[in-house]
Amino acid sequence: MIWWFWLGPLGGCVQIPLSILRMYAMLNPYGVKVRYPQDMAVGIQDARAALEYSQEIKRWADALIGV
């Protein structure tokens, strides 16, 4: 499954695969955790998964813009 998102003032749309959206959803809570480091307790497996997901999202974005 693929989702389409409008890029607003940038113009056009971009296709975002559901797998990328799922990885993003998994990473999203870390954005809150880093703002409140006293609450940040991340296990090694979670850290490895987060790193893997972020690298995969970056690869997808790089391919999208031709880097």
Task: Explain how this protein is built.
The protein is an alpha+beta fold and 67 residues long. The chain has two helices and two strands, in the order E-E-H-H. It has helices at 18-33, 44-65, and strands at 2-6, 13-17. It has a two-stranded antiparallel ribbon with strand order 1-2. A hairpin with a 6-residue loop joins strand 1 (2-6) and strand 2. Helix 1 (18-33) crosses helix 2 (44-65).
Strand content: 5-15%
Largest sheet: 2 strands, antiparallel
Task: Tell me, briefly, the overall form.
Answer: elongated
Helix fraction by DSSP (H/I, runs of at least 4): 55-70%
Can you tag this structure with a few keywords?
67 residues; 2 helices; two-stranded antiparallel sheet; alpha+beta; 57% helix; 2 strands; 15% strand
